[in-house]
Design a protein that fits this description.
7-stranded mixed beta sheet; single chain; globular; alpha/beta; 203 residues; 7 strands; Rossmann fold
């Protein structure tokens, strides 16, 4: 397990340990991210948003799938700063923009996005039901919401120590599916591998 000071920075990275955590996210979640993206029902999207964009690596990945613009949303100033460094070429080309904000209040018009992703972040959302409704609002009909998590509620003992360090809620695929249905998503698919879980919801 990573040092406690690093883990404490997972929800809202800041300072020295936050920077280490962002670097660890970009490197350590690569295989998980590629696995999750493999379930997307199509290979081309228009405008997209990575909610809780962390270190920015997944925003960079999304530019390869999107003909439009990719937005990264995160509440952490440090995350936005480090992400901008990683994606400076894409920002200069007008392909990427990072914005400070929360998943529960997205700065997008109704039905303006084709894809929203959430990698290793829904654990920390204060009101996940509100966030899911907000994402549903921002997607156009037929738009896709992709959730990719490394931790599953189905193995609680394994993460007991983690829960002692940070405020985190670990969800099962069944619970996430239920919340997505309540938010208005019509087509929901769940995939698992080891402890990894992926939810694909279509508006």
């Amino acid at each position: 397990m990573k040092p406690k000071k690093m883990i404490k920075n997972a929800p809202h990275p800041k300072g020295f340990w936050g920077k280490l955590m962002l670097n660890a996210m970009n490197k350590g979640h690569s295989a998980l991210s590629e696995w999750g993206l493999s379930f997307l029902p199509q290979k081309t999207f228009t405008d997209a948003c990575d909610a809780g964009s962390g270190g920015g690596a997944n925003v960079k990945r999304l530019t390869l799938l999107c003909e439009g613009k990719v937005y990264g949303i995160d509440p952490s100033n440090l995350a936005l700063k480090e992400s901008a460094k990683l994606c400076r070429k894409e920002i200069k080309a007008g392909k990427v923009e990072f914005l400070q904000g929360l998943s529960s209040s997205l700065p997008f018009a109704d039905g303006s996005l084709s894809l929203v992703t959430a990698f290793e972040t829904v654990y920390f959302w204060e009101d996940i039901s509100l966030s899911f409704k907000e994402i549903h609002r921002a997607l156009y009909d037929g738009g896709v919401f992709l959730i990719v998590n490394e931790l599953s509620e189905n193995e609680p003992d394994k993460y007991a120590e983690l829960k002692k360090i940070i405020d985190i809620t670990i969800y099962s695929p069944e619970k996430l599916s239920s919340l997505l249905k309540k938010a208005g998503f019509s087509e929901i698919s769940a995939y698992t591998e080891k402890d990894w879980i992926c939810l694909l919801a279509v508006k």
